[in-house]
TrEMBL record:
Keywords: Secreted
Highest taxon above the source species: Bacteria
Gene3D superfamilies with a match to the protein in the record: Collagenase (Catalytic Domain) (3.40.390.10)
SUPFAM superfamilies named in the record: Metalloproteases ('zincins'), catalytic domain
Keyword Secreted: yes
Compartments reported by the entry: Secreted
CDD domains per record: M34_PPEP
Domain ATLF-like: 55-241
Any GO MF annotation of the entry: metallopeptidase activity
Protein's recorded name: ATLF-like domain-containing protein
Native source organism of the sequence: Sediminibacillus albus
Annotated PROSITE patterns: ATLF (PS51995)
Length: 252
């Protein structure tokens, strides 16, 4: 028994070492539905995404259905995400964030099933998470395919950019210099952009996420944003020089 005890003690460290050697080769998308862009099917339209300038980073981030029913909508969503400054995309990738573009209900995803009967913040009382087309703020961002525009079950300027903005907000708020500036521009400009809209005036994260969607959607939307919120615009402009190494690894 004494010899067996010694043997077991020596086996445990070896097993732990082997486990950590194996982990990098595990496909971390397996716990949830979908596959990375490179492996996805969708004809020439999806394959042409490989020509996007940030495709190498997008392929680390974006998860889509294996056989999507609306590849046109996926292409449009990925092209919009590609417009986000590369350092911001690299920050998300370095934190192992995944952007899940899904079909069906949000809570069909096993990792989000626990939300099925919970009420999302700021929504009508008879709405639960299973009715909501997107979620963000954590390592798993979700946006429903074909629901990008306001009126598609949400009121955001753009669904996928808004949800990504929530996660970027969380990461930036982990650094004091960004947290102070975000709070300052929110206090100064939220009322001017969204007069009388308590949702954006009360929650800095919602203001940031919505401004994120305006800024990265395109030049017309960004110019409109600049007219009402110039300090917020300048904040996002500086993200093109973001140093991702200043953020804690594995924040999520």
């Amino acid at each position: 028994m004494h010899v067996m005890g010694k043997l077991l003690k020596s086996v445990k460290p070896i097993a732990i070492i082997l486990l950590f050697l194996f982990i990098p080769f595990v496909d971390i998308t397996r716990p949830f539905h979908g596959m990375m862009l490179q492996k996805a099917q969708g004809g020439d339209k999806v394959s042409r995404l490989q020509n996007l300038e940030n495709y190498d980073v997008l392929d680390q981030l974006i998860v889509i259905p294996q056989n999507p029913s609306n590849p046109d909508a996926i292409v449009a969503m990925v092209e919009r995400i590609n417009q986000i400054d590369r350092p911001v995309l690299e920050l998300l990738a370095s934190q192992q964030v995944k952007v899940r573009l899904f079909e069906g209900n949000l809570t069909d995803e096993p990792l989000l099933y626990y939300l099925k009967w919970q009420k999302p913040r700021g929504w009508e009382q008879d709405i639960s998470w299973q009715d909501v087309p997107g979620s963000g703020g954590s390592w798993l961002i979700s946006a429903k395919i074909g629901a990008s525009n306001p009126g598609s079950g949400h009121g955001s300027f753009n669904l996928e950019l808004h949800e990504i903005g929530h996660t970027v907000y969380r990461l930036l708020m982990s650094e004091q210099k960004y947290a102070r500036r975000i709070k300052r521009i929110w206090n100064r400009e939220a009322e001017a952009v969204f007069p009388g809209q308590d949702y954006f005036i009360t929650y800095a994260s919602e203001y940031f996420a919505e401004m994120f969607s305006y800024y990265y959607y395109g030049s017309d939307a960004a110019n409109k944003m600049f007219a009402k919120a110039p300090e917020t615009y300048r904040f996002f402009l500086k993200l093109q020089d973001l140093d991702i190494h200043q953020f804690e690894a594995y924040y999520y």
